[in-house]
Amino acid sequence: MVEMKNISKSFGAVRALIDVNLTLHKNEILGLVGDNSAGKSTLMKILTGAYNADEGEIFFEGSPVRITNPRESRELGIEMVYQDFALCGNLDIATNIYLGKWPTKKGWLRKWFVDVKTMDAESWRILQKLKVDASSVKLKVEGLSGGRQQSVAIGRVISFDPKVIILDEPTANLSVTATQQVLDLMLELKNTHDVAMIIISHRLQDIFAVGDRVMVLKRGRRVGERVIKNTHEQDVLSMIVQGDAYEQSRRD
Hints:
Elements: E1 2-11, E2 14-24, E3 29-33, H1 40-47, E4 55-60, E5 63-65, H2 70-76, E6 78-81, H3 93-97, E7 104-106, E8 112-114, H4 116-129, H5 146-158, E9 164-168, H6 176-193, E10 196-200, H7 204-210, E11 213-218, E12 221-227, H8 233-242, H9 244-251
Parallel strand pairs: 3-10, 3-11, 6-9, 9-10
Antiparallel strand pairs: 1-2, 1-4, 4-5, 7-8, 11-12
Helix pairs in contact: 5-6, 8-9
InterPro entries: AAA+_ATPase, ABC_carbohydrate_import_ATPase, ABC_transporter-like_ATP-bd, P-loop_NTPase
GO molecular function, one term: ATP binding
Protein name: Probable sugar ABC transporter, ATP-binding protein
């Protein structure tokens, strides 16, 4: 689905990314891990068009692409769910899901109006599709639990019919129950929606619960990657802490 080759990015004298390669396969969940300032968010912001790489290439479904802004990323089918959910708490679920892209219809005096009935029906369909437990799409988002708010944020990107979803710390600050709800939702997306995902997370247990592969960044460089079923948390943690020195010691 996605191949990023030799991606480099600097902010002044700070080299945030140095010749980073990333591959995401179809219908795969890839964990992207590393300590603070490793370059995880910068790499994903390049993929979503928020930043432009100084060097490197991006391929999408086998073809070279140039992503210079978020609109171009969205047109390819790449969506991102941010850590703060980016929801409007004073608005209801349906309005949040269709925020900025409301379905319209021509009404009285040939003026265009928001088609609330269609918006509510489609929002309910998305929630049911994702198996989100909500009694109504008219509930205000601010009254929902953290797990359900995350589900609404994911529902919003699903409304764009994406091929790739990037989730930034999707279970941060969630309760144990809410975390499990979000992890179940990720597996639901993978198994029934044919969506590939990249999960940025500090919680290795979450990556091991749903991921297929995990890739480690450290100080802007790619340390390496592992197939989840062939490794364990301590192995990945050692990569995060020791970086290239750990990989070299394993080869020696």
